[in-house]
Design brief:
This protein has 192 residues and is α+β, with helices and mostly antiparallel strands. The protein contains three helices and eleven strands, in the order H-E-E-E-E-H-E-E-E-E-E-H-E-E. It is 21% helix and 38% strand.
């Protein structure tokens, strides 16, 4: 636990790099289209509990893993953002299925440490293009992410080529940062 706190407070945070394809403002709402390369991610999932009930627990597991709670006892630094994949129902309410991921820092991409927590897996994720709603602050919970996702949906319109069965809730800050927080909503662009 101390390793996780030390890592998130004093460690270097490596922000996941992307290629900015466009930056747009539509109806007063600012968003970007970004391209992320494929990479290895530490991933943990949950079914049966709500977003607000379980995200803190899942994020802590991943921060502990990259903070040194792994088979090799290696503190890797930290990476941002933490990406929470959610699956909205037709009424916009999130289902009780979540997948939380954090990119393995670059220097460990080739050989990531083995998770000691068996609920954590390391996945090779393909590259992706996303519509990213520009940042919003605070300790975002399900209601804030849902509201921002609705804003982005309305802004992009019905014909925009993005996946509607899932989206990403992203947080860039360590859990102990009290203010000036950065959160985003990403929609996965459907590839032509």
């Amino acid at each position: 636990m101390f390793g996780m706190m030390k890592n998130s407070l004093f460690g270097n945070t490596e922000e996941t790099e992307y290629k900015l394809l466009s930056s747009e403002i539509k109806d007063g709402v600012s968003f970007e289209v970004r391209r992320y390369d494929g990479a290895k991610y530490a991933v943990v999932s949950s079914e049966g509990r709500t977003f607000d009930q379980v995200t803190g627990e899942l994020v802590r597991k991943l921060l502990m893993y990259i903070g040194g709670s792994n088979e090799q006892a290696v503190a890797m630094g930290t990476a941002a953002p933490i990406i929470i994949t959610v699956y909205p129902r037709n009424d916009g309410v999130l289902s009780r299925r979540l997948v939380v991921a954090i990119r393995i820092p670059t220097s460990y991409q080739q050989e990531p440490p083995t998770p000691s927590d068996t609920t954590i897996t390391v996945e090779d994720r393909p590259g992706m293009t996303v519509y990213a709603l520009r940042q919003f602050g605070g300790f975002a919970a399900e209601s804030e992410y849902r509201a921002e996702a609705l804003r982005l949906t309305r802004t992009l319109g019905e014909t925009a080529p993005f996946q509607r069965k899932q989206y990403f809730c992203c947080s860039y800050d360590p859990p102990l940062k009290p203010y000036g927080r950065r959160n985003e909503v990403w929609f996965l662009q459907e590839e032509p």
